[in-house]
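Let us work through a complete example step by step.
Step 1: write down the sequence.
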Amino acid sequence: MSRAAQADQPSIFGGPGLRTLIVASLVCTCALLSACGSGGFSLEKAEVDRSFYTSNVSAPRTSVEVDRLSDEATIRNAVTSADIETMAGAALPWANAETGARGQISGIVETRGKGTLCRAFSATRESFDGIGMFKGEACMVASGAWRMQSFESL
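Step 2: predict the structure and record it as tokens.
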């Protein structure tokens, strides 16, 4: 094919019209970006808007507090549903899928004082923030539900 015939064929790159369009769009993009950075925003000019007032709201519980309460409830449920006679002093594993924590409960001792059934225990808690040991006591309240009387870190 002669050079004259090849000039009439469309190019892979779209011919000179596409190249001109690409160059023009690059020039426009550079111009716009340089205009944005030429003093449009300054931290010295930024001020606090004092015209807005909000009401006082209580601080939300931290995630550490929420995780601890969730783990405490999981441990309470494991202690109160355990069959102490079948366990015969063996450690009782527990895990909380919500927080990712896990551990073991040991030394569950059942007592009945003043007509109230209670279970004292020791527990470990393993989580992303470390390992801890706890001592607690859960007692049955009048409605038949269990309530954590004490749960403290050792």
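Step 3: interpret the result. The chain has a mean pLDDT of 81.
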